[in-house]
Amino acid sequence: MIYLDNAATTPLTPGVIESMTTVMTENFGNPSSLHSYGRKANHLLRDNRFTIAKILATQPKNIIFTSGGTESNNMAIQGYALANQDKGKHLITTAIEHHSVLRLMDYLEKRFGFEVTHLQPDQEGKITPASLKSALRDDTILVSTMFANNETGDLLPIAEFGKLLANHQAVFHVDAVQAIGKMEIHPEELGVDFLSASAHKFHGPKGVGFLFTQPHHMDSLLHGGEQEIKRRASTENMIGITGMAHALKESEQNLEANTQKVGQLRSDFFSELEAMDYYLNGSEQTIPQVISIGFPGIDNGLLLTQLDLAGFAVSTGSACTAGTVDPSHVLSALYGTDSPRLKESIRISLSELNTSQELKQLATKLKEIIG
Fold first, then answer.
1. Do 113 and 245 share a domain, yes or no?
2. Domain check: are 189 and 73 in the same one?
3. What pLDDT is stored for residue 233 in this prediction?
């Protein structure tokens, strides 16, 4: 089986597995305990927080460990919005966000009376600073956008958004789940107030992530103990946190080589597809790891099944429910709900662990299936 669905999740590296195994066997203490086992675990917790903070060029106190990207997004958006609604009840996001943002925004509208503006892609498929500027109001208190789209790989102009919001009361939340580990990101330099990440997108374990946060007033989602600098109750997942810190450190150390490797894989794949009729979704400004590609007249659900039977793991990039492929809300926003791209597109997502031979085998199988 050839795995090419890395935007959904990534395999663990040997180094990550080793770091987690060490914690399981040698450092099982609760970091809140006062005895030697607890102190040893607490020391490891501080080391992991320092490792991640250093990579993000921030202070350790600005890193809160969570259960993953969904919790980090909810913690930042809901936590800030509810605690600061006296400043205004207008929120801004985009139409191409992950469901953990879109459904939360819908919840805040229906349950608490917030008003949400969804920025739409322009004719070139881009979310522009101009559209954000025109949507800002005096009562806007939070703007939430992703760094890189999970279906198309499109990069949003985060630095430009940050500059635009520098003199506005609205805080800036960035869902960087698809970007962390694939590029250098320093949130404070970008003018970002909150930044979400999930370990399993950069060869770490599932069920753990982090939230970078400036010291803003926020409501807590979880109530209980005083873990995570009193901002997130619950005993820390030391096994997962250690694996995540190790995975991010590996990604940072090999960032240039990994980027070159993935770029070469992408180039090799398209070289093999030269004679085929296909199109790409999104803009030219993307992370190289994600390829959203469509083949005119070819049903993506049937194509996925044929590829799976042939030993290739790819996806549509949208939710699969009860055996049916739901239309992509991202492609709907980009091309309209009636576009044939919604039923023709698949997502191929790469990592540096893939090989050129695997991509060539995929291209050969696509040519065989599509003819």
1. yes
2. yes
3. 86
Name the catalytic one among 130, 159, 319, 320.
320
Q: Which domain holds residue 88?
A: 14-253
Same domain (yes/no): 313, 180: no
Closest alpha carbon to 282 in 222, 231, 349: 349
331 and 296 housed in the same domain: yes
242: phi then psi, degrees, rounded to nearest 5: -65, -45
Report the C-alpha dihedral over residues 130, 136, 68, 99, rounded to 10 degrees: -80
Tell me the two tokens of residue 279: 């199109």
* pLDDT, position 229: 86
Provide the CATH number for the domain around residue 62.
3.40.640.10
Is-catalytic flag, 317? no
Q: Per-10-residue mean pLDDT for the chain, 371 residues long? A: 97 98 94 91 96 98 98 98 98 97 98 98 93 98 98 97 97 98 98 98 98 95 90 94 98 98 97 94 94 96 96 82 70 95 97 97 96 79
How confident is the model at residue 326, as a pLDDT? 77
Domain edge (last residue) among 237, 253, 269: 253
